[in-house]
């Protein structure tokens, strides 16, 4: 693939992943409203298109993530090879170069986020379900009580700390990645550069803060025994 093709692939897959992050955060914020809205959302995602949508979407997400990672790594390698050795100095370049801590750690933060994605999907997609007692009733039908599983998971301080760290790294990755995606697609006009940079900073901050609010709120303000008792009462009413 040509250098331009790698940049286009990196930019388009990066923006597609930004879209996924926005939609995923919107769904997760339903946790702050209550069990029924969140469980309704997860049931819809699970049952949509007769159950085919979610596994296909998850597979597509992994392929999208891998494509973005491979393209990004190859672009970084090409840039490093094209840079004279005497200019390969560590440090913030400032100005139009956009060399920052975020830009220098894109590969590392990206790999960490990919590992987190796999663990996250495994933990909640393939974790305890109806057979293990995580069951609720929605519109008179039994459904998986994913809300209870999430609440119980985020009662572990180590899980909350690890999730917080990864979301901070997400913010760092998006801080440079948002601007870089537009640059890869040719939006490098100096007139719009500052606007894209600012939009990237705001986007990174909002996404990281949005995801961070969820585990912290759950850990501080939601009582797991009360959630379990409500689930048990719901189960007894079936």
Descriptive notes:
72% of the residues lie in helices and 3% in strands. By secondary structure, it is mostly helical. The chain is elongated and about 65 Å long. The termini are far apart. The protein has 9 helices and 2 strands, in the order αααααββαααα. The protein has one domain (3-85, 104-236): 3 helical TM bundles of succinate and fumarate reductases (Up-down Bundle). The longest helix is centred in the first third of the chain and has 30 residues, at 53-82. The relative contact order is 0.14. Strands 1-2 form a two-stranded antiparallel ribbon. Helix 1 packs across helix 7 (157-184).
Quick overview:
The chain contains 9 helices and 2 strands. It has helices at residues 3-28, 35-47, 53-82, 101-104, 106-125, 146-153, 157-184, 193-221, 224-236; strands at 135-138, 141-144. It has a two-stranded antiparallel sheet with strand order 1-2.
């Amino acid at each position: 693939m040509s250098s331009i093709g790698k940049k286009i692939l990196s930019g388009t897959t990066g923006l597609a992943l930004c879209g996924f992050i926005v939609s995923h955060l919107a769904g997760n914020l339903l946790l702050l409203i209550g069990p029924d809205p969140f469980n309704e959302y997860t049931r819809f995602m699970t049952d949509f298109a007769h159950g085919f949508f979610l596994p296909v979407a998850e597979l597509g997400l992994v392929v999208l993530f891998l494509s973005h990672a491979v393209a990004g790594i190859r672009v970084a390698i090409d840039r490093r090879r094209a840079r004279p050795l005497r200019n390969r100095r560590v440090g913030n370049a400032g100005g139009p170069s956009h060399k920052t801590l975020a830009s220098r750690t894109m590969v590392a933060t990206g790999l960490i986020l990919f590992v987190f994605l796999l663990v996250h999907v495994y933990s909640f997609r393939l974790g305890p379900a109806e057979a293990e007692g995580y069951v609720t009733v929605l519109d008179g039908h039994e459904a998986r009580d994913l809300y209870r599983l999430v609440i119980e998971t985020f009662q572990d301080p180590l899980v909350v700390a690890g999730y917080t760290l990864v979301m901070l790294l997400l913010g760092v990755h998006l801080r440079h990645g948002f601007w870089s995606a537009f640059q890869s697609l040719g939006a490098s006009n100096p007139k719009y550069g500052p606007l894209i940079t600012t939009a990237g900073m705001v986007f990174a901050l909002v996404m990281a803060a949005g995801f961070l609010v969820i585990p912290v709120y759950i850990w501080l303000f939601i009582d797991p025994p009360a959630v379990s008792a409500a689930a048990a009462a719901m189960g007894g009413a079936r």
